[in-house]
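Many introductory courses stop at the sequence. We go one step further.
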Amino acid sequence: MKNIPDELYSRILKIIPIACVDLIVTNSKREILLLKRKNTPAKDEWWFPGGRVHFMETREDAVGRKLREECGLQGKIVKEIGTYDLILDEENNNPSHAITTVFHVEVNNDKVAIDNQSVEYEWRLCNGWLKNIKSPFVRMILQKVKETDAAK
């Protein structure tokens, strides 16, 4: 898999949306894993593991890769939650546009090994996260999880 040089990737980000996956990772206690982001977009915010889908990679394969790379975990996809436009207007007039598919993934082992994209991680129940999440997108997805859990 070839990496896109940083300068070219920055130019691409300014003209087309990027295909991404975001992962709702749950453990056996029904806790949800979020990572505190180190980089833009959403720097210093709690966010789902995930990221760009590579060329010739399925979204499902990207889920497994991002789970391994960002969290050091393996899991199984439970279901696809939905696909959303995620438009973030970052500071310094540096907006980003992703088309992201959100997947629910269950893991058996909750010993996380974060990569250099994040500064910390936490496992919390959905209501615990909803109390202090800023991002409207993350809040919306967590609310969907809460409603799904309540319907069970």
